[in-house]
Amino acid sequence: MNDERKIRVLVAKPGLDGHDRGAKVIASAFRDAGFEVIYTGLHQTPEMVVNAAVQEDVDVVAMSILSGAHMTLFPRVREMLDAEGADHILLTGGGIIPEDDMAALREKGVGRLFGPGSPTTEAIAYIRDWFEEQGERV
Amino acid sequence: MTADVEARYLPLLERFRAGKRTGLARAITVVENEQRGFEAFLHEVLSVGPRAARVGVTGPPGAGKSSLLAMLAGHYREADEDVGVVAVDPTSPYSGGALLGDRIRMNDLATDPGIFIRSMATRGSLGGLATTSKEVIDLMDAFGIPRILVETVGVGQTELDVTGAADTVVVVLVPESGDGVQAMKAGLMEIADIFVVNKSDRPGADRLLKELNQAIHLRTGPGGSSTAGPAADVPAHHGVDMAAAMKRRNEERGEVKKPRRWEAPEGWTIPVLKTVAQTGEGIPELADAIVRHRAHLVESGELADRRRARLERRVRDVVQRRLRRGAERAVAGEALATTMKAIVDGSDTPYSVAGTFIRDILERETNG
Ligand SMILES: Nc1nc2c(ncn2[C@@H]2O[C@H](COP(=O)(O)OP(=O)(O)OP(=O)(O)O)[C@@H](O)[C@H]2O)c(=O)[nH]1
Ligand SMILES: [Mg+2]
């Protein structure tokens, strides 16, 4: 029995924009925080994200979206996760997302989202706190 | 003796048996986390025995293991065979976290319903796999996946664990890996069933290929194939088959053979193949070599031997794991503290106290 349950996080970079520096920074910060990070690289479609999330049985999906497509991508991934019976997965992420959009996405079952300026420690603390509340999954 | 599956796992068991991918995914988590009752769960689902063809891919960091594996999986998918992948990357000893990046190379397969990929962190295990990787492979097998590919952590030395996880071990090297002598030193000759020189689009591939072939023939002698038994450790001596003699002697003495196999079996010459994982060059040949190796394993009876050795090792591992876990639990916290008083004031000794703990551990473990 592991005394401390590992938090498994899928860090995904959906969309067509061609750089994943931000996603890589997040992925390493999560690793340094003790998370097990599954990193899948650029150009992930919602199908790819959801498929990986299911197979890897992650606790959290964190998407980095800079393309402005957050209003379609987040709800789409949320719906598809739920349809796969993975409604227990926390969907969070970051990018250039206006406050109003963040609020609207929260209404749709998306977790907290983080703007470009927010330190990675904030997202880490958020995920840790959320995870604390979760029971062991069977 | 194993206790019954805990009631809380019954819905999961049902999903697993119904072939639901979420059922396999969660079962893997339960096993990977060694959640309470996971062994009883395994006992329940594994009663069918091994069926899948298991191929292990190992080699130094960045050699192209994931890329090759993706190509190989694609190759099997063309024949409409389901494929399971277990890809292991290291846990950081500093943070306990891990960056699992093998999926990056498998994006072409990412939405193929015939492929199930699971990434695992080593979580402190040193042999190239995670402690529970073999059990995760078993789960995929029991789930009905006929081909399972395992990628070890990229470490240059002998990744011995992979031999306990796979029927066929593919060792991937690249022109930059050094020469054939280094491969010998690293113990790769003993674990490889097939050598692959990947990145053979780069200079030096032919040189490495030649050196590997030389090293293989040095090891196996002019006959071209190795002798059975622990020949890898014991050179043949004046025509006397030392290996066979030692083996006989050990058997007569009733000594337990070490859980090894891993000298290439009789009649099998380790092939050395060139590949370019990015373009898929050499993949059909690799797939073909795997098929030939498997046929060889079946015909020579070696497959049964390897499976047996694997299971023998598993029993040993599980015994150790359960006792270790029991021991950690038993001496944690209050229990030890309370007994300390008697030891300190001299009315008891560490030895009798330990004896009491051990009796408790055994009692707990036998009751599930
Ligand atoms: N030139 C060339 N590059 C290759 C070839 N195969 C893989 N690569 C590249 O080598 C790098 C490492 O490939 P991976 O497949 O991730 O290697 P790996 O052995 O799985 O790496 P680790 O899991 O990190 O140990 C990537 O940038 C690949 O694109 C090849 O045949 N030729
Ligand atoms: Mg890899």
In brief, what are we looking at here?
The complex is a heterodimer of chains A (138) and B (368). Chain A has 138 residues and is α/β, with parallel strands linked by helices.
Description:
The complex is a heterodimer of chains A (138) and B (368). Chain A has five helices and five strands. With 138 residues, chain A is an alpha/beta fold. Chain A has one domain (2-137): Cobalamin-binding domain (Rossmann fold, 3-Layer(aba) Sandwich), CATH 3.40.50. Chain A is globular, with a radius of gyration of 14 Å. The mean pLDDT of chain A is 92. Chain B is an alpha/beta fold. Chain B folds into three domains: 1-46, no CATH class; 49-300, Rossmann fold; 331-367, no CATH class. Chain B is built from 13 helices and eight strands. Chain B has helices at 10-17, 21-32, 38-45, 65-78, 133-143, 180-185, 188-191, 205-220, 242-252, 283-300, 302-331, 334-344, 350-366, and strands at 53-58, 83-89, 98-100, 115-121, 147-151, 168-173, 194-197, 272-274. Chain B has a seven-stranded parallel sheet with strand order 4-2-5-1-6-7-8, sandwiched between helices. The longest helix of chain B has 30 residues, at 302-331. Chain B is globular and about 70 Å long. Chain B starts with 9 loop residues before the first helix and ends with a helix. Mean pLDDT of chain B is 85; it is low at 222-262. The interface between A and B is large, with 36 and 38 residues. Strand 2 (36-39) of chain A pairs parallel with strand 3 of chain B.
